[in-house]
Amino acid sequence: MPAPTPASTPAPTSAPVNGASPDALDLLRTRRSFRLMDLQAPAPAGEDLETLLTIASRVPDHARLAPWRFILFEGDARARAGEVFARIWAQDNPEADEQRLKDERGRFLRSAMVIAVVFTPQHHPKIPEWEQMMSAAACCQNILLASIALGYGATWITEWPAFDARAREALGLSEQERVAGFMYVGTPVQKLEERPRPDLAKIVTRF
Hints:
Layout: H1 22-30, E1 39-40, H2 46-56, E2 68-74, H3 76-92, H4 98-105, E3 113-119, H5 129-149, E4 153-157, H6 165-170, E5 178-188, H7 200-203
Antiparallel strand pairs: 1-5, 2-3, 3-5, 4-5
Helix pairs in contact: 2-5, 3-4
């Protein structure tokens, strides 16, 4: 299913240049990834999905190259992708038992929806590929944040299909494209406890 392509995107509501947003700060302070098995139906759809993808694409993008795109895996498409993974795994691991192949078939069934954020490098004399790749990574982070803001949850994972050329080709990627992240999205069925975070005293220095 192709991503929604609205004829026009409404202009964002203007906000004071220096206006604080307590709700946004609270979301950023408490954001965390969810366990795959907790991201059940319903997945974002309709207006929620359009909002999610619009926010996903609102990232730093030097020279407006848009070096990324999105592939949606919904409904039966998740199982079709799993058949691809199981076939490739069986080719490389002929000794694999049926349980492992079943796990591969169910890889994208672990959440209600999977969004592949695809890095699509663009040739530019001044914008290095590394900078473009970080822009694609920012799309992944925006999906995490927007999912929570919309009342859903998400987890950013790659795993072996992101690095296998045959899997990428079967999922519709070109030879030069790469997976920045498989974003597993759904409605959380369980609240997670907070986990320890880095001590700022250990990661912050002043020059």
